[in-house]
Amino acid sequence: MTPKASKRLARAGKSRIRLHFLGATRMVTGSLHFFEYTSEEGITTRFFVDMGLNQEVAAMNRQNRLPSGIKPSQIDFGIFSHAHIDHTGFFPKLVKDGFTGPVYTTAPTKDLLSLLLPDSGYLQEKEALSAQRRAERKDKTAANTPAPAKKRPGKQSNTAKSSSAKAAQPTAVQPLYTEMEARACLGQIKCVEYDTLTQLADGIQVKFTNAAHILGAAVVTLELGKRNQKRTVVLTGDIGRPDMPVLQDVAQVKQADYIICEGTYGDKLHEKRNRLAILAEIINKAYKRANVPHQKFGYGVIIMPAFAVGRVQSVLFDLRQLMAEKAIPEIPVFVDSPMAISATRIHRNHPDHFNQETSALVKKGIDPFTTPRYAELEDFKLSQQLDQPASSPVIIVGSSGMASGGRILAHLEARLPGPQHTIVFVGYQGTGTLGRQLVEPGVDIIKINGKILRVNATIESMSDYSGHGDYGDIMRWLSGFQRKPRQLFLVHGEAATLEALKGRVERTLRFEVTIPRHRDHVDLD
């Protein structure tokens, strides 16, 4: 907002709220909602809710992501709904470009970000290095390609030679930010408890309520303005599913003038089935295969790729419960992912966020994530030993959940050719990932690290561990508001998915619904 407009509002004794939609508009990733609140006195406070990386169109992360004319140094503070990189991963770049203010979130989210943001920086460096090498190979190939014959031979000018030499030197590819830069920004993250109305600036208050998506995830309720000019804006972040392992269900919010709601699964319903029974059946069949040793390769291995934050902990919880109930054998379980191990420790440090079932275990002195024969492998040499012939059936739980990187690739490379092995995917597999290739029916050949492998192992897939609520869950949550909001904005979903959810909300709840486009803005009256 211009200084002239601020003065005009101040003279009129009115405040103004302008909301900019700068990310996850008709897309699933890259969350960024930007607010400009101008008080009755004409003072403008700028802040963001979420500052995520776009993981679908990476080029967008290299563009200006703020409203026109706004510099990072002019932003007063930020808010994070939860720790996932598509909601937080652009933050180190914002700091690198001059943002110095605090960012408010829950304590578990801050702890998880101490893992996820440096890892994101490491991956940014790795990708920049790969891009640099690709550019150098391309330039080398171009330099070794003979130039087309000239019709009129003549001496090349010094200027042309200089330009040619300059073109032959590729520009260094810089990472968006480095691991060190990501670590340096962690000190700007401040903690706010659930269900506590906290003043962040004059006329701006925030309250976090449980979103049930991952540990520490929050629905963000903003109260902007004073007295009769106060407006309540609710942002869902990501809404979780009910009756999931470990975490409490999503808390209901009852009042809002405006709602910004995610719609990732806005056109889908999760299959309703007994998750524990399905998992037990898969593990028991896998154990039966694994318990017949191969003369050369030993016993079978059950590999469970899972996301380090949230998914690994849910899988461990269920494995422990099934073993305690004697529903599956007490198979040795190895957690082979340093990030998953650290994330599990963070979960253990926040038992106040657990549901009743998990809290009851903790009160009895039972670790909800530890099976009877359990080991965490941080040492890479111990990880490598898992690829030797097994002396008994074992379960390996590791990341990444889509088999797109990490130690899990080595285990898959070692075990996919063996018919005594089983690979169990426990979540959605994105297009183009190794996980998606493996869960497709009829796959018999796969490539890992340039090596062609036969797929003789049994591939199992169960979507029961998805952390996103479906449209039924979203509709139930929206129906809990005591009065209709003035406007519902749908974000975090593909265009067709959001259109389907929009129609359902309009027909059933009679809300006024808008699907904003990238860089749209609206004044919240």
CATH class of the largest domain: Alpha Beta
The CATH superfamily of the largest domain turns out to be Ribonuclease Z/Hydroxyacylglutathione hydrolase-like
- Poorly predicted ranges (pLDDT <50, ≥5 residues)? none
Counted by DSSP, the helix tally is: 15
What is the domain tally? 2
Q: If you had to describe this structure to a student in words, what would you say it looks like?
A:
- The structure is a single chain.
- The longest helix has 37 residues, at 107-143.
- Helices cover 31% and strands 19% of the residues.
- The chain is of the alpha/beta class and 525 residues long.
- Strands 6-5-4-3-2-1-22 form a 7-stranded mixed beta sheet. A 7-stranded mixed beta sheet has the order 7-8-9-10-11-20-21, covered by helices on one side. Strands 14-13-15-12-16-19 form a 6-stranded parallel beta sheet, with helices on both faces.
- The model has no long low-confidence stretch (mean pLDDT 92).
- The protein has 2 domains: 3-117 and 178-269 and 468-523, Metallo-beta-lactamase, Chain A (4-Layer Sandwich); 275-461, Rossmann fold (3-Layer(aba) Sandwich), CATH 3.40.50.10890.
- It is built from 15 helices and 22 strands.
- β2 and β3 form a beta hairpin.
